[in-house]
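User: Hey, quick favor. My workstation is busy. Could you predict this chain's structure for me?
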Amino acid sequence: MNAKRGFTIVEVLVAIVVLTVGLLGLVTTAALTTRMIARGQRSSMAATFAAQRMERLRVSGCTNQVAGADTLYRGSTWVAVNTWTFANVATSTWRIVLVSTYKTQLNKTKIETMETSISCLV
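Assistant: No problem, here it is.
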C-alpha cells in the first residue's frame, strides 16, 4: 500500500464542527458584551445626571428648599428623570432626597435613590 498524505473527510468534518462551535460561542459572547455596554452607558448617564443635580441642590439648599423635578432628554426621548424633596431634620439642617428614574432595556425603568444632609449654620 502506498502511504498517502492529507486529511480524510471525517477529519475535515470534525474540524469544521469544532470551528463552528467555537465561532458560535464568540458571537454569543459579543452580543452579551454589547448589551452590557449599553446597560452601563444608560446607568452611567443617569448617575451623572443625578450627581450633577445633587451638587446644585447642595449649593443652593440653604437658601431655597423647594421640591422639584427635571428630565434628561436624548433627542425627543427621555432618558432619566430626577425628583427631589427637602426635609427639615434639625435646626438649620436639611435632608435632600433625590430619586432618579431611568430607562433600561426594552423601555423598562429602574429607580435609584440618593440622599444627603446639609447644614446651614452661618
